[in-house]
Design brief:
This protein is of the alpha+beta class. The protein has helices spanning 5-13, 16-32, 43-52, 70-84, 114-121, 139-142, 146-160, 175-187, 212-221, 227-238, 241-245, 248-259, 264-271, 275-282, and strands spanning 56-58, 62-67, 89-94, 105-112, 161-164, 167-172, 193-199, 202-209. It starts with a helix and ends in a 24-residue tail after the last helix.
Length: 306
């Protein structure tokens, strides 16, 4: 039987004393992640799952993320640390080959823990480690509370989504996975559509959130952890005249005048608001008021999701 030189050198250096030290170190690591709630489905763990379905990855005993956004890397690292109580290694590297061929710097986040990986794989339907072409939204996420669903979607859209033109989009080659995400969005009362497109000879699928009311709901319930993406979403909403033109006070005044017996034309003249808008508010039950974006609403953090 042929052995490689590296194997022989490893065996040679692994004395009885060394092997005992390695065993004790591994036991210490296992004890460190055995906190009372590491196995629970928390907001932070939901975010980790969403990221793994996007830019995150798993190897033999590692969980990692390679990204260029520092705030994304730090947020993912903090979530892993809070769930398992282990520090992640954070390294800056340069893209040199494969999909990392343009020479730009990126940040690599790695958590080395067999137990942590096994815990995450317990939620994986496919048992393949959330691969790009096969990942699915865990059943536990689908049946969880709304804030948990929101954090999963945020992790996924931080990885694969963003604001493009006048829409919020996410693109993937995994149709079944995107259908699961679509189901989560619907459960949060955010209307979106799935489109199919061809790029470089392969089928890709795209989720789009087009209407301003649904984009506003996405902003309030989910948002982005990446500042540049969050800023683009804020600018998209602030530049919409529909959100800046009317105030909650005007909406309630229209409702009050209607209760007093005034018709839509008279209310329109008195309030100096288009008749069509008045009609929507009164008869079609379109409530513009909850969609108004105020300056104090333009701050989003993990602690404000409930």
């Amino acid at each position: 039987m042929a052995y490689k030189k590296g194997h022989l050198s490893c065996w040679k250096g692994l004395t009885k004393e060394n092997s005992e030290r390695v065993r004790k170190r591994s036991e210490k690591i296992e004890k460190r992640i055995r906190n009372k709630d590491y196995f629970l489905l928390t907001l932070e763990k939901a975010y980790v799952f969403g990221t793994l379905c996007g830019d995150g990855w798993m190897s033999k005993h590692q969980i990692g993320l390679d990204v260029t956004d520092k705030d994304f890397a730090e947020f993912f690292s903090k979530c892993l640390q809070k769930v398992y109580g282990l520090n992640c290694s954070i390294k800056r590297k340069k893209k040199v080959g494969g999909y990392k061929k343009n020479g730009k710097e990126f940040i690599e986040i790695v958590l080395c823990s067999k137990k942590a990986k096994e815990d995450l794989l317990e939620y994986d339907i496919t048992k393949k480690g959330f691969k790009t072409s096969t990942w699915r939204v865990p059943v536990e996420i689908k049946s969880a509370k709304k804030n948990v669903k929101s954090m999963f979607i945020r992790g996924f859209f931080d990885s694969e989504g963003g604001v493009y033109g006048r829409t919020i989009q996410s693109v993937s080659s995994n149709k079944k996975g995107l259908l699961d995400v679509l189901e989560l969005l619907i459960s949060l009362n955010i209307k979106s559509k799935l489109y199919e497109q061809k790029r470089e000879g392969r089928n890709l699928y795209r989720i789009e959130i087009c209407s301003r009311p649904n984009q506003a709901k996405y902003f309030r319930l989910i948002g982005f952890s990446i500042k540049r993406k969050q800023d683009r979403l804020i600018n998209l909403l602030k530049n919409s005249s529909r959100f800046n033109k009317f105030t909650p006070k005007q909406y309630y005044e229209v409702q009050e005048l209607h209760k007093q017996g005034l018709g839509k034309v008279k209310i329109s003249r008195q309030m100096n608001i288009n008749v069509g808008t008045i009609s929507d508010w009164i008869y079609r039950k379109k409530k513009i008021m909850p969609l108004c974006i105020r300056n104090e609403d333009l701050k989003l953090d993990i602690n404000c999701i409930n």
